[in-house]
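Researcher: Predict the fold of Serine/threonine protein kinase.
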Amino acid sequence: MRRPCDVRESVLLMIPYVKQVKDELLPQLSIRSLDPYEPVEVVFVPKPWRVVGAGNYAAVLLHPAEPDRVVKIYAEGRPGLPDEIQVYRKLGCHPAYSECYYADDTFLVLKRLTGVTLYECLRRGIRIPERVITDIDKALDYARKQGLNPHDVHGKNVMMIDGRGAVLDVSDFLKDEHCAMWDDFKRMYNLFYKPLLLRVTVPIPNPLLNMLRKGYRIIRKRGSS
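Model: Structure tokens for Serine/threonine protein kinase follow.
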């Protein structure tokens, strides 16, 4: 049975961790967002915290004493945190998604998903089985059944965990407009990756991946206009 994210029930369990975030991390952490279409820049992180991810709105950080939790902190002026809380409430507990343990005005405490993004799989030459693609398809269908609209689902926002697929970022799942990113990723997977790289994988250089990513964004913008 699906269990909704109940922030109130999590408060007492999260008190020590949240205190660390508020007393040790937030006062010293420096994050800035220079371009809404590029990942935020983490300028300074106090030890022993470390960055484990960065999106266009927020950074995700880990404390080594709490390996099963992460804190997602939004950059100043970036929207989306209230929407993301609502998305996690709708998703509840599902094996392909994280879970919201606690929420505040500027950050979320989330269950950590430990794996490799599909973007990193391409960059490092790690094989992406078809089952991973199928798992992500099923997870997105599940989200739609909860009244959500999967959006901004691309190689950096989906992950392979022990050979299974997971969705890493759900912050835009309340947006109304159609998003074709995942359909386009699957199309490229079926047209090029399966016949050429599924059996014999080779690393794709990061500059080439970045060029493809930016080129895709330009093509999508022109197409939408």
